[in-house]
Amino acid sequence: RSLLSEFKRINDYLEEMGTKFLSGDEMTFVDCDVMPKLQHIRVAGKYYKNLDIPNEFHALWSYMDRCYKTKAFQESCPFDQDILMHYEGKVGAHIKAVGKTPTLQQPTMTLTIPVHDHSE
Questions:
Q1: What is residue 1's predicted lDDT score, i.e. its pLDDT?
Q2: What is the pTM of this model?
Q3: Into how many domains does the chain fold?
Q4: Please, are residues 21 and 29 in contact by the beta-carbon 8 Å criterion?
Q5: Does any domain span residue 66?
Q6: CA distances to 30, 46, 92, 109 from 80, in Å
Q7: So what's the pLDDT on residue 102?
Q8: Which residue ranges in the chain fall short of pLDDT 70?
Q9: Which H, E and C letters describe the chain, residue by residue?
Q10: What CATH code is carried by the domain that includes residue 71?
Q11: Residue 99 falls within a domain, yes or no?
């Protein structure tokens, strides 16, 4: 629940600021700090807890899309499997996804965003 409130805070902040990134219209250090965390939450949260960033957070999704399109993020973003392996030894049995263990497979990278109906 507190994670969802943090998503809402970021979304509201981005709406209020009206900028492309958190500190303005250019990517800065703060984006390089926040965006990888959002990516880890997105990938590991979905895998271990079936947690999704709510689609109604349009400003947050637009922000993530802009970050996904930067060369810096594309070249530094780990594969989904690497993110999951990072948490594999740290995830307690009580939150471990039942029957899910990251296995050797073709690397994937989640860089898509939900399609929004702009008539809302």
A1: 76
A2: 0.81
A3: 1
A4: no
A5: yes
A6: 22, 11, 19, 5
A7: 54
A8: 90-105, 116-120
A9: CHHHHHHHHHHHHHHHHCCCECCECCCCHHHHHHHHHHHHHHHHHHHHHCCCCCCCCHHHHHHHHHHHCCHHHHHHCCCHHHHHHHHHCCCCCCCCCCCCCCCCCCCCCCCCCCCCCCCC
A10: 1.20.1050.10
A11: no
114 located within any domain: no
Q: Which of 44, 49, 42, 52 is nearest to 89 (CA)?
A: 44
How confident is the model at residue 99, as a pLDDT? 54
pLDDT (0 to 100) of residue 108: 85
Q: CA torsion angle for 25, 120, 5, 17 (degrees, to 10)? A: 20
Q: From residue 95, give the alpha-carbon distance in Å to each of 2, 73, 85, 99, 100.
A: 17, 29, 15, 12, 11
The whole domain housing 80 covers 3-88
pLDDT in tens, 42-63: 999 999 999 999 999 999 999 9
Residue 49, in any domain of the structure: yes
Chain CA centroid to CA 87, Å: 15
Q: Are 53 and 7 within 8 A, CB to CB? A: yes
